[in-house]
Amino acid sequence: MLMHPQFDPVAIAIGPVSIHWYGLMYLLAFVLFIVLGRTHAKRRPELGWDARAIDDLLLYGVLGVIIGGRLGEVLFFNPGYYLSNPLEIFAIWRGGMSFHGGFLGVLVAMALYAHKHGRSFWAVTDFIAPLVPTGLAAGRIGNFINGELWGRPVTSELPWAMVFPWVDALPRHPSQLYQALGEGLLLFVILWLYAAKPRPLKAVSAVFLVGYGSLRFIAEFFRTPDPGIFGTLSLGLSTAQWLCVPMIVVGIWLWLRVRGEAPFSRV
C-alpha cells in the first residue's frame, strides 16, 4: 500500500508570484498540442495545415477549454459551492475543470474557427482529435499532484493502492493515474496510429468520441464519483458516465455512416 506524496501544489514561488503545478500541466498540454500538431501536419500534408493555422487553432482551443471546462464544473458538478464562493470560479489554478464542459467549449471554439477560416468543422475536429489525449493525460497528472478526484476504496489488496490521508485512511485506487494512462496515453496511441492514414471525413472524430467515452465510462468505476447536480443516477452510474453515453452513441453512428467513403483530402 502506498501513501500519496502530498505534493506542494505550488511548483515555483518567486516573491508574491506563485506558479502552480496544475497550471504547468496545462502549459505542457498546450506545448504538446503545438509539437504534435506540426508533426501531424507534416505527415499528412494533403490535409492543408501549417504552423500558423495550428497556432490559431490552439488559441481558439485554449479559450474553449478554459471557459467551457470551468463553466461545466460550476454548473454541472459544484453549483452550490461556487454560488457561495463566486470568486473561486476564477481560481482555475486550484483545479476544478470539467472535461465535458471543456469538450463542449472546444466544439464551439472549433465551429467558430472553421467558419472564420472557411474550413469544414469536421475537418478541424478530425485534425485535432489525435492531439487532445496527451493534454488529457497532463491534466490528470495535475489532478494527482493536487490530490483531487481520488479513487474508490479498494476491496482487495492491491500493491498500488494509495491512501489519500486528507480524505481518510482507506486504501484507494489512484484513479487519476488510471485516467492518465487510459484516456491519455492509450487513446493517444489509438488515434495517432488511426489518423496516420487517409480516412473518411468524420471518421477520426468518431473514433475519438467512442474511445474517450468508453475509456472514461470504465474509469468511473474506479473513481469516487463527483456529486454533480444529479448525483448518482439510474443504474448506479455517475453523472460523468451518463454524459459519456451520448458520446459513444454519436461516435458509433458517425463511424457507421462514413465507413467505406473516400478518404478526405483538402488539397
TrEMBL record:
**For this protein, what is the EC number?**
2.5.1.145
One matching Pfam family is LGT
Gene Ontology biological process terms in this record: lipoprotein biosynthetic process
Report the GO terms under cellular component: plasma membrane
Q: Where are the transmembrane segments?
A: 12-36, 57-77, 97-114, 121-141, 176-194, 201-219, 239-256
Topology relative to the lipid bilayer, per the entry, is: Multi-pass membrane protein
* Molecular function (Gene Ontology), one example: phosphatidylglycerol-prolipoprotein diacylglyceryl transferase activity
Report the principal subcellular site.
Answer: membrane
Which residues does the record give as a 1,2-diacyl-sn-glycero-3-phospho-(1'-sn-glycerol) binding sites? Answer: 140
Keyword list, A-Z: Cell membrane, Membrane, Transferase, Transmembrane, Transmembrane helix
Lineage: superkingdom: Bacteria
Q: Which PROSITE patterns match?
A: LGT (PS01311)
Could you tell me where this protein is found in the cell?
Cell membrane
Q: Which family does it belong to?
A: Belongs to the Lgt family.
Q: Its biological function?
A: Catalyzes the transfer of the diacylglyceryl group from phosphatidylglycerol to the sulfhydryl group of the N-terminal cysteine of a prolipoprotein, the first step in the formation of mature lipoproteins.
Q: Any idea what this protein is called?
A: Phosphatidylglycerol--prolipoprotein diacylglyceryl transferase
Which organism encodes this protein?
Azoarcus taiwanensis
Q: Which gene encodes it?
A: lgt
